[in-house]
Specification:
With 153 residues, the protein is mainly beta. It contains 1 helix and 12 strands.
């Protein structure tokens, strides 16, 4: 029997639950469909930071985002934006990236240990599945390498 870190398993399960959408309806964590401009949110997958803040161009866009939870989306204009993630408790900047968001749509910034030099993923969200269908996305961001099994029952 393998020992699995509880934090990594919990993060994978919470990320999966957060990124589920049904028939284009909001589920409390996702907002359906692009709004004509870019939107970004942060998903806290940092086991070392119980709560984080998202700063966009130096302004707080989301605060006290708990481990395993996403923030609400914040709107962005097209172009490059400085995105920072900092510890809510200490104010220490944990991540500083400047992606070019030149297309409209929804994006999730996922800082997590073990993601290399950048330390984060910026993934495109598509929370609107085809009518009558659902969509599940699993993103493996655990620091300890190993496979993740997803079962549909």
């Amino acid at each position: 029997m393998r020992n699995r870190p509880i934090h990594a398993t919990a993060a994978a399960l919470l990320l999966t639950a957060t990124l589920i959408g049904c028939e284009g309806e909001p589920n409390g964590l996702l907002i359906s469909g692009p709004s004509g401009s870019a939107r970004v949110r942060v998903f806290n997958a940092l086991t070392s930071a119980p709560c984080i803040d998202l700063l966009v161009d130096g302004q707080v866009a989301a605060s006290n985002v708990a481990f395993g939870a996403p923030s609400r989306y914040t709107s962005l204009s097209a172009g490059s934006h400085q995105l920072q993630v900092r510890s809510s408790t200490t104010g220490t900047v944990l991540l500083n990236v400047t992606p070019d968001v030149s297309t409209s749509g929804s994006f999730s910034l996922i800082p997590a240990p073990g993601l290399g030099d950048n330390g984060a993923l910026l993934v495109t969200d598509d929370p609107t599945p085809a009518p009558g269908q659902g969509r599940v996305r699993v993103i493996h961001v655990a620091a300890a390498p190993g496979p993740v099994a997803v079962y549909v029952t």
